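not sure who needs this but someone in the group chat was asking about tRNA-uridine aminocarboxypropyltransferase from Daucus carota subsp. sativus so here u go. i didnt clean anything up, its just raw.
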Amino acid sequence: MEANLTENVGGNTRRRICTTGCDRPINVCLCDKIPRDKIGTITKIIIIQHPHERRHKLATVPVLAKCLDNCEIVFGRRLRRTVSPFLDSLCADAVAHPQNARRVVFLFPGTETMPSLDIDEWKSLHGDANVMSNLVLIAFDATWKHAKEMVQASLPFLTKFAIQISLPCKVEVDGDSIYTSDLTLRKEPFSGCMSTLEAIARCLRILEPNGAEIESRLIELLKDMVKLQACFLKPMKPRVKLSKKSKSIGIENGADKDW
């Protein structure tokens, strides 16, 4: 008998959900793609997921958590004491032993006011055997707007025990992504953006001894996810360009600005 259940989606509409492993809608089931034995990593991965992402149909974090053995999801809009006992212990340890702070990193692109270390640069400076064997990677799962808000709100806590790192791409530059462009599930605000799953896969390639293999397995899964989802996504219509006068009126009336 097929193992699935139904889920309410916007009123009376229902969709069947796979309960044999992936917990995704039946028509985009990934059970045959998710590894039966979770992928082991030395790096401990903590993902801070915005509440809006928990039931987003294009979220990659639920799939990632089913693939990685050493991965934990924390739900919330910001990090502070009491949100995660594990992070509280890391903070207390770093305060008592400042040299241990370098073993915790959080992933977010740097800016002029909030600079970050390129992940390769961080590894060359701090990646000795002791650090790499006890490394903790923190990532934020949200839209770009929400992620910025989450990081800013979390900095008073994070900066006590973690170093900010980033993948080698610049958010200010409008150009092709340094990574493949066929892994896009959502419209991103600028080139170089990537899903949480892809970003963590790219990090693990650099941080793990067998990182290339781990990255390859995760990216292949993401490609399968994109192919399945693409069959059900409507093509985006080009936005109608507004005159400057119309834009001014829209902003004055409280309309949201585009990025």
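also The chain is about 35% helix and 15% strand. if thats useful
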